[in-house]
Design a protein that fits this description.
The protein has 1506 residues and is of the alpha+beta class. Helices cover 47% and strands 8% of the residues. The strands form ten sheets. It has a ten-stranded mixed β-sheet with strand order 1-10-5-12-13-20-15-18-3-2.
């Protein structure tokens, strides 16, 4: 447990911890505020080794005291240990946080450590010495660190004293022992400081300057009897000015240098000024307390306190009034303010020379003379007088200020120090407020968040502060808080509140600190009283640096501490065998503390650095207890520690049976120390002995031993009492008396069995160990008070013996049974009965019981194994067979079990049968080769044994060998029958597992040779099949022929043979195609090329075929580029063939929208209505083409008639456009099919891009929809070039046949058109039309020149004018055309009805041709001139073109703005000037670029043909 040190009472505490000891701002983590910033820090703290840490399993954790007893042999060697519960054991925190209020104790860290406290006490005494004489102590610095006056005094004493060191000139050695560097004359400086500060004090301490016959210093009893626990504590009163910590801190500051005025006034200071400032010997240069006050008074000289004797009439007794304790001081006080200038002592004694009594009181106490009164000093403490030259050493002059004589100084300095203790704070905290204060203090001290401060850093800083005399750091500790009053951290089953299921479990747990002390195996459960701290837990609320000092538990009991939550708690422990060693070391190092407090270690207020203890041979261990962990301390194990930060812990004592001897020794130890007991050990033993049936057996045995010792000792003590002559006796129920009424007056032990009392001294009582210390009364007046008679005690002892020996009887039976001492093995039932007896009588867990349980378990395993072996043999289904060796071992196990085993004979029979089979098998193996049937029989016999005989395996291998040889022989018997390659591989692999023999080796060699040959041919065939470089058929045929000699089925060879057969068939197909009547078709060649490429054979004809196919593909691609539009949905064959379904509108639109298909021309066969085979016949293609022409013409006529019925403009109705959307405004009508289409969906003629001639009938306003104009319609000359290239191809293509038909059709139509245009009926109209055209062109030239000169500048949207040369054919051209439309007149030509119809019919056939012919354009213009001008069509086209150009300009401006913004942001470099011009303007400058929106088929609408 942590310390339960005596709290101090009545002292006003210092301010709260966080305000009392703020660290200096410049201090970093782990650095202390060294005085002056120059002194070196002390040596680093070296952590002791770690204590044992145990992690019990759940099974072990369920028995707390049993587990502690189990780990005790290990943990007891360290004194303390740590236990980590299972991870899921997490008791809820049961304290009512809001109602928990406590008052902590105050701890000054540097007063906790024993050696530091001794130094501080020494500094207190020497400071008091100098303060008595009117000077405040200022400790000097030496080599940038404060001089340790105590260590200097000790070293000087150990080196022989001041005189001896000076005589031998050994001050340099003193400096060396104080760890000062050599060679800096530090020894002389230390001597100076010693002479000025320490030496006068040491002289007074030794009494060397008291040479008068004054009364010795015996007014106080120096060695009064020490009364522990009742002395006034050091901090139980308000700290005096001599004991104030503020003064300590002040005296540790840098000492101020003396002023020149001080040096001038004091001649001695002049001599010593080389050594610096410091108090001087016996008033030399001592500073008067009221010196500064005198300086302030300018009116007159201020004199020191003056003694003036009033003039009295003769006969008056001048003796001092005895009623006043300080009469002379009253006289001094009365005359202190005399304004008369005077010396230090002016006595008006001359007027009363006759009064000898008065004069006697003013004589020197050393020389007994009263002369030289001007040099007579009066002590301010006792009113004695001394000549300044009689003092030792003598004073040169009268000192200023208050002065005390050597006797008073000695009396004050030798006053024993007050006992040390902790004072209580005045502030009451809650857990929250204390935690906030603690966290703020730690974070401020270390200058980092509390959770980031390493534990090692806190530990080093703690011991640095504890060992420091310079720093005063004060903390608060909420220690020894009673859980009965404030509530335990564990759940408790009481009536205050209802617990949940989980809380109930933890409330009943043995590890609950409210439960552990009262467990059945615990001794403390037999104490009725609730001993706070021992049976009832205490609570501890800690902050960083709060500490618990070195101590052992009351009565040397166990303790257990549980950290509920918070930061770790650091522990240090010393094992019990080193307890006295620790006490001796502490007494040796700090004897001054133990002189005033002999039981200092029982006060729990003293620390000593573990490194110091370890340096003196004391074994110390440490540990960091984290939240949720237990720490256990063992009997008489000293322990101490401190908290790493804000945390909450709970602790309690417990005692087990093994503690009883330690408890008895503790009482003897307390008796020697005269220390009070917490409870009576005798009473505890007797109470347990009175009810032995309630004791655990271990406890009963331990109590019996203790009771026996107790009875023997009591008999001896009572006999001594009889020998003394005490014969009277009286029974006393001591347990009913309060403890303070039955305590020995001498040793303070609580009596129970007996005590000695006196009739004449009823207030006193002694135990029988101190019968001579009761009183001086005669023995006849003394009498014995006893609890039990000497006859009753043996009866109690006997009951304990019976209880304890019941276990011994059982243990004897078990021992005889297990060791078969009587030669008779017990049955299994008898052993089970012994185990049941131990369980029923609740015998303790012991080694014999473990042996008995192990024996029973072993016997039951043997029975189970034997029954399994025998039943397996009987049923024919044996379990895992045992080897012969295992069977022998099992038989030995059966024989060694210390109980009767009935299965032993059956197992012996199995072993005998196995040995007989082994002999038979060995004989058969020696006689090899044996018959396979004999070997097989032996193998079957061995399998039925149920025992793995080694020879069985050999027999099995022989059988396996014979079977393998037979299979190899059968496989290789006939060379005509080919063996599968997998079978050969399997036999070769199986041969590796067969037992070796000459026959096996021969067969394996043959198999391996055959397998090698077969694999080599397989690899060769595989290379031929997979290699990139193919081989000719002759090479493959040679490989196959050679491989046929191998008598093994080779899969790769078979695959190669099949590939060669396919290659020969392919060559035959190629020859057949090339030798036919017609050129081969392209698809046939492509099929052959695909097959030939897949064959693993090098075919010479394949390259030729690939060239032919490539040439054909090149021609087809060229023709496709010539005819097909970009992204056309038609195939080349569809475009070249007539559109047989021209009259069906829906299929057209469907075909327009579908994606073009690749591969074999699926739609090509549909184009002409021919199968793939028919397409190979040129005649069939021609016939189908002619039929398609007629169908196309008929279909388009039907479509024209149907579409002519649609209103113009079209009304809302079913969709007609290629987009599938219903009709809308601004639609265009096809000249061929007369259907309507949306302008954005199709390509329409641009009048502005044509630069139309003045002859309006030449304006190309003819619109053909994409369903009627399916291709680019190349000119006839281009088609003829394609036909020439086609004639050179040695391959037939369906597209070639179709192209020839299309060309013939176009030429035929061209001839008809030329004949018609050359006819007499049209010759005249054509001449008139040409003349009109020429006249209009002449007028248009003059008009164009005028319009160019007067062309206005157009204003753009941004207000900038664009020059005409930059505008190009934009809005100005279209506006000019629009202005002309109103002046158009027509028709300009009249045609008869007959020629008109012929022209229209011929123009219809020409529009169906996918070829561009000049005659078609001439026919269209002629018909156009014979009609009225289509003004509406022209206006519609111009409006569409204007809208298109406006959109293009807007898009150009937006793009330009975006580019400018991006250039401004630095994302793009600025474009060159020409790039910033509108796209339309740039395009207009290039005649080769089509205008926006104009499709690739624009020229096919007839633009520029005339």
């Amino acid at each position: 447990m942590e310390d339960r040190g005596p709290p101090a009472r009545g002292e006003e505490p210092p301010p709260p911890a966080a305000d009392r000891a703020p660290p200096p701002q410049e201090r970093g983590p782990g650095r202390g505020p060294w005085p002056g910033g120059e002194a070196e820090p002390p040596e680093d703290f070296l952590p002791p080794p770690e204590c044992p840490v145990f992690e019990p399993s759940w099974a072990e954790f369920r028995d707390p005291l049993g587990y502690i007893a189990k780990i005790r042999p290990i943990a007891e060697k360290s004194g303390i240990c740590k236990i980590r519960p299972p991870a899921d054991w997490q008791p809820p925190f049961a304290v009512e946080v809001d109602n928990f209020r406590f008052t902590p104790r105050i701890q000054r860290l540097n007063e906790l450590e024993a050696q530091t406290r001794v130094k501080l006490n020494y500094l207190d005494q020497i400071a008091k010495f100098w303060e008595i004489q009117g000077s405040s102590l200022k400790i000097p610095n030496v080599e940038r660190r404060i001089l340790d006056l105590y260590s200097l005094s000790k070293v000087v004493l150990e080196e022989g004293g001041y005189e001896a060191i000076c005589r031998d000139r050994r001050w340099a050695r003193v400096a060396q022992r104080l760890a000062y560097p050599s060679g800096k004359n530090i020894g002389s400086l230390l001597r100076s400081h010693y002479e000025r500060i320490i030496y006068p004090y040491e002289m007074y301490q030794s009494g060397a300057n008291l040479v008068c016959d004054a009364r010795p210093f015996d007014s106080e009893e120096k060695d009064k009897e020490y009364k522990p626990h009742s002395i006034p504590l050091r901090q139980s009163v308000q700290p005096s000015k001599f004991n104030s910590y503020g003064r300590r801190a002040k005296r540790l500051q840098q000492e101020p240098e003396p002023t020149e005025e001080d040096i001038e006034k004091n001649p001695e200071l002049k001599k010593l000024q080389i050594y610096g400032a410091g108090p001087k010997m016996l008033g030399l240069g001592l500073v008067a307390k009221d010196k500064t006050l005198r300086k302030k008074d300018k009116e007159g000289p201020e004199c020191p306190p003056t003694v003036v004797v009033k003039e009295e009439p003769p006969g008056v007794d001048h003796r001092l009034e005895p009623a006043s304790p300080h009469p002379f001081l009253e006289v001094k006080e009365e005359l202190r303010h005399s304004p008369e200038p005077c010396t230090k002592m002016t006595m008006r004694l001359r007027r009363s020379h006759g009064n000898t009594q008065f004069i006697d009181s003013y004589v020197c106490r050393i020389c007994a003379r009263g002369d030289e009164d001007d040099k007579l000093l009066l002590c301010d403490g006792c009113d004695d007088n001394y000549h300044i030259f009689c003092l030792l050493p003598p004073l040169p002059e009268i000192p200023k200020g208050v002065w005390r004589c050597p006797k008073c100084v000695m009396a004050e300095c030798k006053r024993p120090p007050e006992a040390f203790g902790f004072e209580q704070a005045t502030r009451e905290y809650t857990l929250q407020s204390f935690g906030e204060m603690a966290d703020a203090f730690k974070a401020d001290y270390f200058n980092m968040p509390v959770h980031m401060v390493p534990t090692e850093l806190v530990e080093k800083e703690f011991w640095r502060l504890v060992n420091s005399i310079e720093e005063d750091v004060t903390v608060e500790y909420g220690a020894d808080i009673h859980s009965k009053e404030f509530g335990s951290g564990f759940p408790i089953s009481d009536s205050k509140r209802r617990l949940g299921p989980e809380e109930e479990e933890y409330a009943a747990s043995g590890w609950n600190l409210n439960v552990m002390p009262v467990l059945q195996q615990s001794v403390l459960c037999h104490i009725n009283a609730d001993i706070s701290g021992m049976k009832v837990p205490w609570l501890y609320v800690g902050m960083v640096f709060s500490a618990f000092c070195w101590h052992i538990e009351d009565h040397w009991s166990y303790s257990i501490n549980y950290l509920h939550w918070g930061e770790p708690k650091t522990w240090y422990g010393v094992p019990s065998f080193a307890a006295e060693h620790l006490e001796d070391v502490m007494k040796k190092l700090t004897p001054e503390l133990f002189e005033s407090q002999p039981d200092l270690l029982h006060q729990l207020v003293t620390l000593m650095n573990p490194n110091t203890l370890m340096a003196h041979g004391v074994p110390v261990v440490r540990t960091n207890q984290c939240a949720g962990e237990f720490v256990i301390t063992f009997p008489r194990a000293y322990h101490s520690g401190f908290n790493q930060g804000y945390n909450f812990a709970e602790a309690v004592n417990f005692c087990t049976a093994d503690w009883l001897p330690a408890g008895r020794q503790c009482i003897e130890h307390y008796r020697r120390l005269r220390r009070y007991c917490v409870f009576s050990h005798e009473e505890l033993i007797c109470k347990m002995a009175a009810c032995p049936e309630k004791l655990d057996l271990n406890l009963a045995a331990a109590v019996h031993k203790e009771m026996f010792i107790l009875v023997q000792e009591e008999r001896k003590l009572r006999k001594a009492l009889l020998d003394k002559g005490v014969t009277e006796a009286e029974r006393e129920a001591f347990e009913l008396l309060p403890d303070d009424e039955r305590q020995c007056d001498k040793c303070k032990t609580t009596c129970f069995l007996s005590a000695l009392a006196c009739y004449d001294c009823p207030a006193r009582l002694v135990c029988l160990y101190h019968i001579h210390d009761l009183c001086k009364c005669p023995s006849s007046r003394q009498y014995l008070r006893y609890r039990y008679t000497l006859d009753e005690l043996p009866a109690m002892l006997h009951k304990l013996k019976v209880r304890a020996e019941s276990f011994d009887t059982w243990a004897n039976k078990v021992r005889i049974a297990l060791e078969v001492e009587d030669g008779r093995k017990r049955t299994l039932e008898e052993l089970r009965a012994l185990e049941s007896e131990a369980r029923e009588r609740k015998f303790p867990d012991n080694e014999l019981l473990h042996r008995l349980k192990s024996c029973l378990a072993e016997a039951e395993r043997c029975v189970s194994d034997a029954l399994g072996l025998i039943s397996g043999l009987e049923t024919g289904v044996p379990a895992m067979p045992l080897s012969l060796e295992e069977l022998r071992t099992f038989l030995e196990r059966l024989s060694s079990v210390p109980c009767v085993m009935h299965q032993l004979a059956d197992v012996q029979a199995v072993l005998e049968r196995a040995l007989a089979f082994q002999e038979e098998a060995q004989e058969a193996l020696r006689g090899l080769p044996a018959s396979a049937a004999q070997l097989q029989g032996l193998v079957a016999q061995g399998a039925r044994l149920g025992v793995a005989v080694p020879e069985t395996h050999q027999l099995e291998r022989q059988v396996q060998q014979a079977a393998w040889l037979e299979e190899v022989k059968r496989a290789l018997r006939s060379p005509r029958e080919r063996v599968p390659l997998a079978l050969v591989r399997g036999l070769a692999q199986a041969g590796a597992t067969v037992a070796p023999s000459p026959a096996v080796e021969k067969a394996r060699a043959e198999l391996q040779e055959l397998l090698t040959i077969a694999q080599r041919w397989e690899e060769k065939a595989h290379l031929c099949l997979e290699a990139r470089q193919k081989h000719p058929p002759a090479t493959l045929e040679a490989i196959i022929k050679e491989a046929e000699n191998v008598p093994v089925h080779l899969p790769n060879i078979l695959a190669l043979k099949e590939a060669l057969a396919k290659a020969r068939a392919w060559i035959a197909d190629v020859e057949e195609i090339q030798n036919g009547d017609h050129y081969p078709c392209l698809d046939d060649l492509e099929g052959l090329v695909a097959v030939g490429r897949d064959l693993p054979v090098r075919l010479e004809e394949l390259r030729q075929l690939e060239v032919q196919v490539g040439t054909a593909h090149s021609w087809r691609e060229k023709a496709s580029k010539t005819f097909l539009k970009k992204s056309s949905c038609y195939t080349l064959l569809e475009v070249l063939c007539p559109c047989a379904d021209a009259g069906a509108a829906s299929p057209k639109r469907t075909k327009w929208r579908r994606e073009p298909e690749l591969g074999l021309y699926k739609s090509d066969t549909e184009s002409l209505g021919l199968s793939a085979q028919d397409l190979r016949d040129p005649g069939s293609v021609i016939v189908a083409f002619k039929e398609g022409e007629q169908k196309e013409k008929e279909g388009i006529l039907r479509l024209r008639r149907a579409n002519a019925l649609k209103p113009s403009p079209p009304a809302p109705g079913p969709p007609s456009c290629v987009c599938g959307q219903p009709p809308g405004p601004g639609m265009l009508r096809c000249e061929l099919c007369c259907d309507w289409f949306h302008a954005p969906c199709v390509a329409w003629p641009r009048l502005g891009a044509q630069k139309p001639s003045p002859a309006w009938w030449e304006w190309d306003a003819k619109f053909l929809c994409p369903l009627c104009q399916r291709s680019r319609r190349p000119r006839l000359e281009t088609i003829l070039a394609l036909l020439v290239a086609l004639q050179k191809l040695p391959v037939r293509l369906p597209e070639g046949e179709a192209l020839q038909c299309l060309t013939e059709r176009a030429i035929t139509w061209q001839d008809r058109a030329r004949q018609l245009l050359a006819s007499s009926e049209l010759a005249g109209p054509l001449e008139r039309l040409a003349a009109l055209r020429q006249r209009l062109h002449g007028d248009a030239g003059a008009l164009r020149e005028t319009s160019c000169n007067e062309q206005p500048k157009l204003s753009l949207e941004n207000g900038d004018a664009m020059p005409p040369e930059k505008m190009g054919p934009f809005t100005s051209d279209l506006e000019a055309l629009g202005a002309v439309l109103a002046r158009l007149q027509g028709p300009v030509l009249e045609l008869p009805e007959g020629p008109r119809r012929v022209l229209e019919e011929l123009l219809l056939e020409g529009d169906l041709l996918e070829v561009t012919l000049d005659e078609g354009q001439s026919l269209w213009r002629l018909l156009q001139a014979a009609r009225a001008p289509p003004v509406d069509t022209f206006r519609h086209l111009l409006e569409l073109e204007q809208a298109e150009r406006r959109g293009a300009r807007a898009r150009g401006r937006d793009a330009e703005r975006r580019r400018k913004r991006r250039a401004e942001r630095g994302e793009l470099p600025p474009l060159p000037k020409e790039e910033l011009e509108p796209k339309r303007s740039r395009e207009s400058e290039s005649p080769d670029v089509a205008p926006p929106g104009a499709g690739a088929d624009h020229s096919q609408n007839g633009v520029g043909q005339l």
